[in-house]
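Students often ask why we bother encoding 3D structure as a string. The short answer is that it lets us treat folding as translation between two languages. Here is a chain of 198 residues written in the first language.
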Amino acid sequence: MFDWLRRKRDIPDTSPAAEPVRLADVPLLPPETTEDSLPEMGGPFMIRPMEDADNSALPKIFRAAIHGQAAQFYTADQCEAWAASAADESPFIARLREGVTIVAELDGRAGAFAQLHPADTIEMMYVAPGLGGYGIATLMCQYLEDEARIAGTTVLQTRASLAAKKFFETMGFKSVGTEEVTRGDAVLTRHIMEKKLR
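And here it is in the second language, the structure alphabet:
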């Protein structure tokens, strides 16, 4: 066994260097729409509270995440109806101003956001396409869990889309059932999930 480990360790690394994350290369639906184009990002990120400067970026991230990650689990019509809930940005931003909303900032730009509202519910968590797998959602979830604990929450809940269910399971949440929600003319299935904090 030790010889095998030694041989594995001695193999030179020929894998190509990681390319910087290019959000501008991620196709969004509908293809002819450019209003939700996201800038190229790369490098380290930080978690911070939502700011006024995020008002135009967060609806774009919301729509892009739905047309990106969620499109593997829902139809194009369902995604379009879901994303349309941020078409009017003023009420969407007003919703984000409730509770605790945090933003993951990369290169001085918002790349993801999450909301705790009320203190026992993760209401929203969206990561721009191309930024999955970097641990951004994990850190945002941990941050909101800490906020919930500080507020005295003993059971944290969320309504997870089919796309987000696996992520929340890795964070210790369990599905306690499903529900159907209506967005425009579309009906979407999502999981009711809970995590005991104490």
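Translate back mentally: Residues 1-18, 20-35 have pLDDT under 50 and may be disordered. Keep this in mind for the problem set.
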